[in-house]
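Translate sequence into structure tokens.
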Amino acid sequence: MKSHGTGKPPWNFKHLGEGTVIEDECLVFHPETISLASNVYVGHQTILKGYFKNEMIIGSGTWIGQQCLFHSAGGITIGKNVGIGPCVRILTSTHKDQNPHEPIIRQEISFRPVVIEDDCDIGLGTILLPGVTVGRGVQIGAGAVVTRDLPAYTVVVGVPARVVRSRREP
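Result follows.
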């Protein structure tokens, strides 16, 4: 079986902006598909899992807490000034369950991008599932599981995540 590599430096990012900080013990896979704008912070022990196709793009001023996992097989786009709490998981692929006589792990993979627009706040332990778009200025409560698109300037909580109120636009 072929290894995905160690994820350890040195990394050759597609783009690495000025003032970006990547803390100790982070792992980065397929850095050639990952673009980090300026002043991005990536917390300790975070895994940025690029993929041989699609891209991970993280906008300027974004803060990513420790022990996050971003798996960008289907593509991840994160806007500017996004706060992402520790232990957040972003997934962009899943195995299809088309044949009950075959192990799911050996079945075809489906890829769908995740988009987080500018100025969002993603709470600790949130999980974003493949294909969701988080609108501008959304606040997601800790531990939420996002299974569908979220409208701009809303506050969402729960499993599955649901809108509990609107925020005023600036």
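Note: The mean pLDDT is 95.
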